Amino acid sequence: MLALALSLGACAKAPDRRGGRVPVAVAIVETASVPYELDATGTVEPIASADVIAQVGGMVTRIAFHEGDDVREGQVLIELEPHAFEAEVARAAAILERDRAQSRSAQLELARGETLARQQLLAAGDLDGKRSAAEALAATVLADSASLASSRLDLAHATVRAPISGRTGKLGVHVGDVVRANDPSTAVVTIHRLHPIRVRFTIPQTDIAELQGERRRDVRVRVTAAGSDTAGAEGSLAFVDNQVEAASGTLLLKGEFANADESLWPGAFVRVRLRLHEQQGAVVVPASAVNSSQSGTYAYVVKADTTVELRPVTVARSWQNLSVIASGLAPGETVVTDGQVRLSPGARAAIRSPAMAGAGRGVGHGDGSEKAHAAAHDPPR
Questions:
Q1: Which ranges of the chain have pLDDT less than 50?
Q2: Total number of domains constituting the chain
């Protein structure tokens, strides 16, 4: 009976020793060097693109590439029936030779007329007529030369070549098809240059001040596939538009990437992170330490006597799993990161496992964190 009474007495007094404490996890408020980053959603686009369209009309007789091939600038893509163009070149050349002969004859007539005119054997009106005829035929020769050059150019265009180097897409024509000159509906193929490649994205006009003053080549841009947490590609900021889009209040930017592994594909949506300067001495806590209510954001601060205080805080921004605090917390203080739902101001905390806010993240610790860490471990009073 004595043993049972002692056991029951011990069980009855156990809650008194704990004093109704709430088990929580905590972290130390720290100062760190935190990169200033902007997040956005972007679209991949080729740095150069060309819709290949035949400049002359005719029937396709040969296709010299396969869909999806990489082609070089100037490489033959398709050939059109050349006979009509060859005949036109021959006709223009013949006309040119005929008119050249007539022009030479007119020049000789003009020379004889000038001789007779000096001897006063030819009227001035007749000399003017010979001069006009010679000049007209000389002009005809120039026009014939232009027609011959145009015919030769059409013959050259019967062989359609790649205007840029890049990756070909879906083939738009086949052997036997008749294409019309400069007709977008009968485009041969579209070529995209994939190396390098660009990603277009926008930032709110409120972030322009952070971008100003940065040297463009020093601004790094990282992209990852939408919905993926795998490591993405890193490039540099290549373009900043010269005006804000009035309808959306955003500024257009473009990042450029080497894309050697072709991980970025035109038209794909990606997540963009624009890294600007480093913010030195930023006050940071784990994002889990900050809570929201109708009155705003707050955090529970564990005091030296293990009681908790509800502290309103202002969050400047987030970086990875940290919150950068603009006001409300000081380096070295201890904040609750788990168990807040069971807390109320003035409650006593039973600390499970204190942790540093920047542990494992490569950020620096501020002064005074060791003192706060020791206070978090003080035994209950």
A1: 1-18, 359-381
A2: 4
User: Which residue pairs from 167-170 have beta carbons closer than 8 angstroms and sit at least 24 positions apart in sequence?
Assistant: 167/68, 167/69, 167/70, 167/191, 167/192, 167/193, 167/194, 168/65, 168/66, 168/67, 168/68, 168/69, 168/70, 168/71, 169/67, 169/68, 170/67
Short-list 379, 293, 380, 288, CA closest to 344: 293
Give the structural domain span for 201: 38-48+194-280
Q: What HEC string does 61-77 produce? A: EEECCCCCCEECCCCEE
Q: What pLDDT is attached to residue 206?
A: 85
Partners of 160 in the beta sheet? 78
CA dist 92 and 89 (Å) reads: 5
Q: What angle do CA 30, 33, 38 make, to 5 degrees?
A: 115
* Same domain assignment for residues 275 and 288: no
In whole angstroms, how large is the CA radius of gyration of the chain?
41
Residue pair 271/226 in contact (Cβ under 8 Å)? The answer is yes
Is residue 260 classed as helix, strand or coil in its secondary structure?
A: coil
**Gap between the Cα atoms of 40 and 273, Å rounded:** 6
Does the model's pTM come out above 0.85?
no
Cis amide linkage into residue 196, ω under 30° from 0: yes
If you search the block for the tokens 């002692």, which residue do you land on? 6
Residues 43 and 94 in one domain: no
